[in-house]
Amino acid sequence: MNGETELGKLLKNLKPERQPGEYVFCVVNTLKHAAELNPISTFQEAEGVTVVLPKRLADENILFYSVVCAWITLTVHSSLEAVGLTAAVSSALAGANISCNVVAAFHHDHIFIPVKDAEQAMEILLSLSKG
Question: What does the angle CA 19 – CA 95 – CA 17 come to, to the nearest 5 degrees?
Fold first, then answer.
């Protein structure tokens, strides 16, 4: 099933959903180490492997992180070819001085926001879907 590409429909159907827990971005040296942590997401960069995982796991494994995030899933099925969704979401959040890290997966986009801003971010994302 192909995802939606029309920005208006994507915004109307965002249906943001906050996932329970607190999450962090950390760096490990190898994909093997990353896999052992069972992260939510990984991305290999020249400097190391970025992992997104529950804060509890980072603390248990004594991994460095700089910000604790809430995880919000945009439950609309967006196409990887959709244009403007990330820009619309990040611009709306930036207007409220909220930083966000967007992870695009096959079916949905996932937004990681500082925990202190999660409630306000949810309100902003819900307002985007109301036009």
Answer: 15
